[in-house]
Design goal:
It is a single chain. This protein is α/β, with parallel strands linked by helices. It has three domains: 152 residues, Nucleotidyltransferase, domain 5; 193 residues, Nucleotidyltransferase, domain 5; 212 residues, Alpha-Beta Complex (DHBP synthase), CATH 3.90.870.20.
Length: 610
């Protein structure tokens, strides 16, 4: 038996993934368990949960873990790091107090990183509830972007493919590419600090007033409200190189010279300002955070121009990679791979004909990648795992749901209508849910194993009727409280996707944007974005039979084979446990909750749904 534990530790979106005999037994983000969004630090709760889930009913003895892979390597790019710190130290005589403070902070961070990694055995053993002397596992430090590449290629169904990782920074690198063949990934090139496409995108997001960690997706949504009129001006921010890479014009950024305040210790990560005053000279005064940006044409045009610039650089890299490798398939990971608009352009505008994007493309997915790198690249073990879906977290049985109803609702349950659907009445549950959604219900859907990655994919989702033009406003008013320019996504039967969307490509993890067919847009206004596109999820009967069955039932009621699907949360991580789901149901104005076999309704919801 082979058991490999992968960790993303001491970075945003801390996570753990456990492989048993080459198959992914479980993968979980720490945020889902401690309820701190994008949680950084060490994934102690995720590790424990993985070990408990590895063998349902009897768990896994920690002493059985043979290898532990961490998706960071303090030794990677060590020479570059010393040169960079030396250059900054040489400027100390003329540096500002902020620059001097930032340099000492960077030095302390490097020292802290080494100390943390020196204590990995102790903290991992503590998370597993054993003494460090009992932990037999061999530890491996896997360079950040190699973990990203492995998370995409080794989790794909491809025997051979080009591989590409794009993000902010990890181990002093922002971009890495190469070729994956069976049990090996050969790295062919990289873009190192201080040049980064992720930094470029985040810096403009900050200038637009979106400064929180993970806000980049908001700006992607906002871009549909503008025109890329400023693209010629913004091209000065980045230079495309003949070797298929790129370089930033560093005048517009400060991360390389002054350093950037970063907090990745624990809780939600924080990132200081990345842009320099030169960016304000180029674009104007930065916009303060606040509502109403979708009403300002100039800022919408900046967002559209940024998105267009990102797509130009991504396509430049991909075209060069396709030309050099001659391969028709691409595996993609890294935080930039969450930009599903750019992902769609890869299929349309490069020579790559097939694309696999890691469902957890951000740093959470490096837990999977680190484990796969060790499993295949280092140990040469055969590939058995294909990541066809992201349902890798915990599931909860009827007893757990019943106990949560008692614990969370208590006497308040008497004011609700609660019906139990035994297993043999599953079809009746699906029909009831589909009919209620068609009648206007906002329905919480808590079923099966929790998703891994940033998207709710029909197991921890809030579901609504995509046909209603007012449904987006209803959701924002009653539950989500999101900016009005942010779209809601459709889940569609995989077999019906091509009838409703122009490309109709498989998109099980909601990582591709497609154009809604012009003749269909009026039928599904709640999930059609400002520019006629949608970030769709295609749902397969094989990978998610219950959710597929609900979509089929809704199609029987309405003739529309899709639902509006948004994450089951309100300004918090996606719900994990039945108790999380019930608390979210209680504090919002959701109408119905399908909690496993229990169907919970508020009295009089139908009157509110009209």
């Amino acid at each position: 038996m082979s058991i490999v534990l992968g960790l993303n530790a001491y970075h945003g979106d801390a996570s753990a993934a456990l492989f048993v005999d080459g198959e992914l037994a479980c993968a979980i983000e720490e945020e889902r368990l401690n309820r701190q969004k994008h949680c950084a630090g060490f994934p102690s709760l995720a590790i424990r949960s993985c070990v408990e889930l590895a063998r349902p009913g009897r768990g896994l003895r920690p002493q059985e873990i043979e290898h532990i892979a961490v998706s960071r390597d303090p030794r990677a790019q060590i020479l570059r790091k010393f040169v960079y710190l030396g250059e900054r130290a040489a400027r100390l005589a003329v540096a500002s107090s902020h620059e001097r403070s930032s340099l000492w902070s960077a030095l302390r961070q490097r020292m802290d990183n080494r100390q943390r990694f020196g204590k990995l055995r102790d903290v991992t053993a503590a998370a597993l509830g054993i003494d460090a002397s009992e932990l037999r596992a061999q530890f491996h430090a896997v360079e950040h972007h190699r973990a990203h590449l492995a998370s995409a290629f080794f989790a794909s169904a491809f025997e051979q493919a080009a591989v590409l990782s794009l993000d902010g920074f990890g181990d002093f690198v922002s971009t890495m590419w190469g070729v994956g063949r069976e049990l090996r990934i050969d790295v062919q090139g990289k873009v190192a600090f201080p040049h980064s496409l992720g930094i470029l995108y985040t810096a403009i997001c900050q200038w637009l007033g979106f400064a929180k960690y993970g806000d980049e997706g908001k700006v992607m949504g906002l871009s549909a409200y503008g025109q890329p009129r400023l693209l010629p001006r913004m091209r000065s921010l980045v230079r495309l190189k003949s070797d298929g890479s790129f370089a930033l014009d560093l005048r517009y950024f400060r991360h390389h010279r002054e350093g950037v305040d970063m907090t990745f210790e624990a809780g939600t990560p924080k990132l200081g300002a990345l842009y320099s005053p030169a960016l304000c000279d180029l674009l104007g005064a930065a916009r303060p955070p606040g509502p109403g940006i979708e009403k300002d044409e100039y800022f919408c045009d900046v967002a559209a121009s940024l998105q267009a610039l990102l797509e130009e650089v991504v396509l430049h890299i991909c075209r060069g990679l396709a030309k050099r490798t001659g391969l028709p398939r691409l595996c993609l990971a890294g935080g930039v791979a969450l930009n599903c608009v750019a992902n769609g352009r890869i299929l349309d505008d490069t020579d790559f004909r097939e694309l696999f994007v890691q469902p957890a493309a951000g740093d959470n997915g490096t837990a999977i990648g680190a484990a796969l790198w060790v499993q295949h690249q280092l140990l040469g073990q055969p590939r058995r795992f294909v990541m066809e879906h992201a349902y890798t977290g915990p599931a909860y049985d009827e007893a757990a749901c019943r106990a949560a109803i008692r614990e969370v609702l208590g006497p308040a349950a008497n004011a609700l209508e609660i019906r139990h659907f035994p297993t043999y009445e599953t079809e009746a549950l699906l029909e009831r849910a589909a009919a209620d959604i068609a009648d206007g219900a906002v329905l919480g859907w808590f079923q099966g194993r929790m998703e891994f990655g940033p998207r709710a994919l029909g197991h921890r989702s809030i579901l609504c009727d995509p046909r209603r033009p007012d449904m987006k406003d209803i959701l924002n008013r009653r539950i989500k409280h999101r900016e009005p320019f942010r779209p809601f996504a459709p889940s569609v039967l995989a077999e019906a996707a091509a009838h409703w969307f122009e490309r109709g490509a498989t998109s099980p993890a909601m990582l591709l944007v497609d154009r809604v067919r012009a003749e269909r847009r009026a039928a599904i206004p709640a999930v059609t974005h400002q520019d006629g596109t949608a970030r769709l999820q295609t749902v397969s009967a094989r990978t998610s039979p219950l959710y597929h069955g609900l979509l089929r039932a809704f199609e029987r009621h309405t003739g529309v084979p899709m639902l509006l699907n948004t994450s089951f949360n309100e300004h918090e991580p996606i719900v994990c446990t039945p108790a999380d789901a019930l608390r979210c149901f209680e504090k919002t104005h959701m109408d119905v909750l399908a909690l496993g076999p229990f169907y919970i309704q508020r009295a009089g919801w139908r009157a509110n749904a009209q």
